[in-house]
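FAQ: What does the model actually see?

It sees only this:
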Amino acid sequence: MPDRPLDLTVAIPVRNEESNLATCLQAIGTDFARQVVVIDSASTDATVAVARSHGAEVVHFDWDGRFPKKRNWFLRHHSPPTAWVLFLDADEILLPAVKREIAEALPHSPHQGYRLTYTNYFLGRRLRGGYPLHKLALFRVGEVEYERIEEDAWSQCDMEVHEHPIVSGSIGFIRHQIDHRDLRGIDSYMRKHNEYAAWEAHRLRASRRDPEAVRTWSRNQRLKYRLVTTPWGGLVFFFGSFFLMGGWRDGSVGFAFAVLKSAYFVQIACRYRELQQPQRLQG
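And it is asked to produce this:
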């Protein structure tokens, strides 16, 4: 660990996260980053009290259904005074090994951002196989923003989830995993992915009218949306997740995870096709 806090702000977007936030903040500690900020969206539980009791700064965000969402809003209106910012969810735990690796990487880094890798949980179990979970969530302040997508309240997602940071420079990789302890259960999983699928379908339709936006897509985004618009996207994802990426190692849990993820692709395709229809038949 560094002798003094890193020139880093850890920003944690939240809404009703009292059950997760304390563990997240405890893992960050007081000597890792110069600043820890909790960005709250009108929580009705004890989230804000938990944040303040652990010494985090709290800022409040109210979304109007349009750009910017929570992360870009924070970068624009509460720009961190540090050189780096790390966006962390309340159910993501910074283990000592990943903190040490970040501390070694940042002081003399040649990169504009870092891709982070995460553990994955499903049905209360940490998965050994399936597609790896990774995000570009650590980058230089003032040089990077998330994609600008001009949506009109497509969903209740007030935070960037599938919008990727736009990075013009080089990207490094943090090898050690952040522990993503999403243990909310299957109801939460289904609600979340229903909402994500609705948003992705609207985003895909909007992109067909804006070729400039497509130019900023990452390679993975291009592949995903190309698959979504074919009849075989869900099947391809299932085969890749369960067989190629070792989902079979998790047995029936890995099988269920791959099935639901493939169903997510199919749902996006169906929602996109529905949006393409000029009007619905009236009964």
